Structure formats: C-alpha cells, structure tokens
Amino acid sequence: AEVVIVPDRAAAGALVADAIAELIRTRPDAVLGLATGSTPLPVYEALRDRLAGVDVSRVRGFALDEYVGIDADHPESYASVITREVVEPLGLDPSLIQTPPAHDEDLAGAGDRYEAAIRAAGGIDVQILGIGTDGHIGFNEPGSSFASRTRVKTLTAQTRADNARFFDSVDEVPRHCLTQGLGTILEAGHLVLLAFGEGKAEAVAEAVEGPLTASIPGSAIQLHPHVTVVVDEAAASRLK
Ligand code: F6R
C-alpha cells in the first residue's frame, strides 16, 4: 500500500476528494464505494466544493454496510446517513445510490442481490474505507474469511461500544449488519483506507504491516494491487 501521512482530517479529506472529483470528471458515471461512520466525513465535506459545477447526475454509489434491526428511516441507519452526508449535500441522484438491502423481507437473499447490483454496475471504481479499532473493514469483524461476500454478520461488543456514540446508549446499537465481504471489497478498482487518531494506530499497523490474518480483517488490503492509506500522525504512529 501507498501510505500518505497528512497533518489532519481536513487535509485527508482534501486529498481524497481531489482524486474522486477527478475520477468523476473523467468518468461521469463512476461507481463510488461509500463508507459511513466518522472517518469519511471530511472527504464528503471536501467534495461539496469540488463537485460544484460538475455533472454528478450519473454518479453511482454503493454503501459498504447497513445495520440490521433498525428501520431504514432511523436517523442512524446507513441509508439515512448516506442520504444526509452524501446524496443530499453532493446533489447525487438517490436512485443511483444503494445501501445493502438489510430491510428487505428476504434478508437471506439480500447479500446476493447486493452483489448482483454491484456486478451489474460494472464493479466499484474507488472504495472508501475506515477501519475499526478491532481491525474490521466494512463490518467484517475478526474471523471473517478473505473470500467472504455480502452477508449478515454479528457486530463485536467492541464495535457496538465504539458506535454507541451515535445512539442514546450501547443497548440501542444494532447487533447485526449486512456488510460487503472482504472478497467483495477486494474487487474494487482502488481502495482508499482512511484513519485518524491514536485509537486507530494499532489497527492500521496490523492491517498495513502485520501478517495476513482473519483476526485483522483489514490485513486483507495487502492482497489488493492498488491501495492508498491516508492517515494522520497519530494513526500512523505504530507503523514501522
Ligand atoms: C462503516 C464501516 C466501518 C467503519 C469503522 C470505523 O461503513 O464500514 O468499517 O469505517 O467502524 O468507524 P469510524 O469511522 O466511525 O471510526
């Protein structure tokens, strides 16, 4: 992976947004892989300026994951988050932006349907990724197969505690999710993993430099030929 150390979140957002805006200018129907959580927010923020005046009417997008067990219109569902943080501020066509169909009646078939939709779009051009303190990417928690596809997973206690800040209490954080698999993520054309803060330093070092292991799902990025890791000094502090 190419590791880029930036001074702060805003610099990371600017760097990644420049690349995405350039992609959209050259390929107006680009397919974006959209992460949620706190980490990608500076990218989405920086894209507002950069996409002003750019034709985004054909931009397509697929979210990495979605909670199972809260309504689609819950403010913290990733469908709501993507609408609020990405689709509306950037003026994207909501019909071209999908989140994993975790609210479908047929949840067992939902993963395959999402995979089919990504395939039908021709695959994801650039996949934005955060990383969990337990080393997850998407919601592929430790123990996930490197060959995994979109499926229902159980969130670890650590991930639920980490995400409690988005809910009234940890008890309200869903226990399950529908997430792109590691195999799905590895098929994107370009992976851009961002991480900020001391709390991510260990996970970043293990993902980028540690052995390939299902215990650190983020280490799967080492199998991909085109990865950019954008980190601040604190998140880079355990890299050798
Ligand atoms: C979100 C996702 C997760 C987050 C990770 C870090 O779509 O797939 O892997 O990227 O949990 O979350 P934050 O950015 O909130 O620290």
Fold topology:
Layout: E1 2-6, H1 9-26, E2 31-34, H2 41-51, E3 60-63, E4 65-68, H3 78-90, E5 97-98, H4 110-120, E6 126-129, E7 151-154, H5 157-162, E8 176-179, H6 182-186, E9 190-195, H7 201-209, E10 227-232
Parallel strand pairs: 1-10, 2-3, 2-6, 3-5, 6-9, 9-10
Antiparallel strand pairs: 4-8, 7-8
Short description:
This protein is an alpha/beta fold. It has a single domain, classed as Rossmann fold.
Protein architecture, described:
By secondary structure, the chain is of the alpha/beta class. It has one domain (2-232): Rossmann fold. Helices cover 30% and strands 18% of the residues. The strands form 2 sheets. It has a 7-stranded parallel beta sheet, with helices on both faces. A 3-stranded antiparallel beta sheet has the order 4-8-7. The protein starts with a strand and ends in an 8-residue tail after the last strand. Bound molecules: fructose -6-phosphate.
